[in-house]
Give the backbone structure.
Amino acid sequence: MENNEKFKIDICSFGYKYGGAGEVNLLFDVRLMPNPYYDESLRPLCGTDEPIRAFMAAHEECGAFYDNMARFAFYYIEESRRAKRNVTVAFGCTGGRHRSVYFAQRFFDECVRRGYDARVVHRELGRET
């Protein structure tokens, strides 16, 4: 990273059924979290929609996972920033519409609140399932 380049964090969500995330620094597999796909009223929605966010927030294990993941990820991010290395963080679930999008978006929002230059891409949104 050049002296005039700003430290950046790229965050992506993806679905394992469409292939891996590619080259990333941190990869979090969230398939072990409760899956809103199995609720037919939630199935057509995505992880940025309020009903999905409420579903995920209602499960204690989602909060515990996020808290532990974020603690480690921000430690890693700070070490990378000191080493002048940008970071890519990926979140994967089965189809890439619900859980991975929820966690990637939540992490992105926290990165922005903390003042990082971050961007998020939800790879599978717009893909027909």
